[in-house]
Amino acid sequence: MTPNPICAKVPGTKRDVLRLLVKHNITGMPVVNEEGCLMGIVSRRDIFEHPDEEQLALIMRKDVPLVKVDDSIEDAARTMMRYGRRHLVVVDENRKVLGVITPQDFLSVIVERRVSTPVENFISKPCFPLHLCTPLPVVFKAMTLTLLSAFPVVDDNAQLVGIVTDRDLFEKAKVDMNVAISELGLGDDEDSWNWEGLRNVIKLFYMEEKVNLPNIPVGEVMIKNPVTIFSKSPVWEAAKIMMKNNFSQLPVRNTHDELIAMVFDSDLVVSLTGADYE
What we know:
The chain is of the alpha/beta class. The chain folds into 2 domains: about 1-100 and about 175-205, CBS-domain (Roll); about 120-170 and about 215-270, CBS-domain. About 35% of the residues lie in helices and about 20% in strands. A 4-stranded mixed β-sheet has the order 1-7-6-5. Helix 1 (about 15-25) packs across helix 9 (about 195-205). The longest helix has 11 residues, at about 15-25. This is CBS domain-containing protein. Keywords: CBS domain, Repeat.
């Protein structure tokens, strides 16, 4: 887990949360009261799903997936899967926040235990390949409609030639930072900002009409010759590749070296809920 995470406090405002997201380049955080006890959790998506709300108490989610510090890894994995969220909050017996767990935290456990179940057993999401000539605005629309953050890219013969993530896409986005800063209410204290954090917040703030993506093919921005994983490979090998490269996903190929799926770090967490070990 990540110990002593950045936390928002209630009472507080949307602007308070945005400042923390930008300054620390994070996408969400626990919400605590003045005594440091957990009250909820808030993410950038929660903020932009409630555009007219200013008070943090009305924006945050109160139904928080949480675990105790002495809970087993298997129980923590089950909790994450049950809630379908990427963040678990670790609390003590008084609901004081001790840490946060994400899917990436589970990867090292999968590798250490050498979980041997095949990768193909944990594929849970549909795979939508994009042709390398797909314009970036269409790629962006696909991401917003499917809620997927990465797509495999194929050529005319449906052969995998690349992968594109939301990060690749928004590196090409044309956004007036001064307008964004003003609309987000961040003020002029530039030293307190993390520009990468600001870019991450803008991804959702400018969800539709305010993002200006060039009409160029995805083949020009994709990651070429991406690392892949064989469908029959043990899941610990996929976890190891993700850890080494800081990936959240991998294309999956079959015995004919054909693309058949994408597997995500959150998919691999399931392997700890009832896995086979070497």
